[in-house]
Every structure is written in structure tokens, then in C-alpha cells.
Amino acid sequence: MQHALIHFPGVDKKDLIMIGDRNHDIIGARNAGIDSIAVAYGYGSVEELKNAEPTFIANSVEEIEEILNVSFVK
């Protein structure tokens, strides 16, 4: 995550969100100062994802869309 951010220095971290299905995705986002959406339908277990403390948890693509609309549409 940090490596990707180096290539986009003008991007505000408030405008980014990491969507992932494993705890490493969520931890990487938090360490980079970025919000995260854990997807409960991927490879990681719900328990693994909850323990990583994501900003949001989504159970479907539709829930991701709802989260993004509420969180990022101004």
C-alpha cells in the first residue's frame, strides 16, 4: 500500500479506500492511514476480518456500493 501511495503523491488519503478479503489487506490499509472495506465473501473468514478491525465490512458487492455512496459521495 505504501509503495502505491509513493506513485500518487497528490492523492488525498481521505479519497482512498482499500477493499480486501484478508487481514493483511486491512492491516496494510490501516498502516497507510486509509479506510478499508473487508469483504466477507472472499478468502478470509469473517472472524479474521473482524479481528483486523476494518472500517467497514461488506457481505456483497451491493453493500460495497452502498458504503462507497455514503462515505465518498459529497
List keywords for this structure.
globular, three-stranded parallel sheet, 74 residues, alpha/beta, 45% helix, 16% strand
Summarize the structure.
The chain is built from four helices and three strands, in the order αβαβαβα.
Q: Name the poorly predicted regions.
A: none
For the largest beta sheet, what order do the strands appear in spatially? 1-2-3
User: What number is the mean pLDDT?
Assistant: 92
Estimated structural class: alpha/beta
Distance between the termini: 25 Å
Q: What Rg do the Cα atoms give? A: 12 Å
How would you describe this protein?
With 74 residues, this protein is α/β, with parallel strands linked by helices. Helices cover 45% and strands 16% of the residues. It has four helices and three strands; from the N terminus they run αβαβαβα. It has a three-stranded parallel sheet with strand order 1-2-3, with helices on both faces. Strand 1 (17-20), helix 2 and strand 2 (35-39) form a beta-alpha-beta unit. The longest helix has 12 residues, at 61-72. The mean pLDDT is 92.
Topology diagram in text:
Elements: H1 2-6, E1 17-20, H2 23-32, E2 35-39, H3 46-51, E3 56-58, H4 61-72
Parallel strand pairs: 1-2, 2-3
